[in-house]
Amino acid sequence: MTGTSTIDPLTVADALRALELMSVMRVFEERIIKLVGEGHIRGTAHPYAGEEAVAMGTCLALRPDDWVVSTHRGHGHLIAKGGDVNRLMAELFGKVTGYGAGKGGTQHMADFSVGHLGSNGITGGGIPIGTGAALSAHMRGSGQVVAVFMGDGATNQGTFHESLNLAALWNLPVVYVCENNLYAMSTPICDAASVEHLSERAAAYGIPGVQVDGMDVVAMARAVSIAVDRARAAAGPTLLECKTYRFLGHSKSDQRQYRSREEEADWLSRDPIGHLRASLLESDLATVAELDKIADAAVATVDAAVEFAQSSPFPSLDAVGEGVFAEEGPCAS
After folding, report:
1. In the chain, what are the domains?
2. How far apart are CA 56 and CA 215, in angstroms?
3. 55-61 mean pLDDT
């Protein structure tokens, strides 16, 4: 370390930790797309590459006992909140050592021990879950805050409007983090929303609506910190619209024919990992050698996770009925 100043509001340690985890997120997502293509991971995956600063900046502003609720594109959220990369990879491989014992897959993971209440395959499905968790924190007086991640497409769901209305009405400690990556699958947000900026929708519920550069982890941490402080002070919810971009397709099969390569190149030039790395170097807070070591460590972490997943067993046939609950009704045989 060559400097002593900070990158406000991050300490040097926070900034380096952010770079470490964001680098793991990027390598992880690029690797799983390769593994899906090679048939090692069955089904599909929704890569988070490009959006790492949103998850990382949000989680840096939270306490360990605060909660997050995730989406179908949720690997980065789990990693940023302190999840186990080995268990995450094992779940994608369908192995018993995974978060869902190999049964949940890419869209269904949770780790209550780190405050991650789960990802969700339903568009907007996690919004009322997070709002309910905030109601629990409010009623218990725990001082906890809930960060609810969602995509831009989720803001057109009824769950979004119902949840924000109740959260505002009941003054709940929740921060709604909208990851506006411009497309809901292949539908441009400009063709699906009547407002230019989704943060404007907060006005309907009398709560702050804030636009944030979702490609800048420092800007994210600063904005989320303000929203979290407001929530913890019993001042109610905030809607953050984080302008970001997914560098890869919606899922493995997406060829991205609905957007231009020029648009992609423009956003790639704003790579949040490259931006943070440059900031650390320009501020004389780290050397090239130190940053290269972080990049190499991220590759090693993902390599180890793949090895762990490959060497783990599949669930046994006897486990098929475990964790499945159904009430026997009058029509049951």
Report:
1. 12-313 (3.40.50.970)
2. 11
3. 96
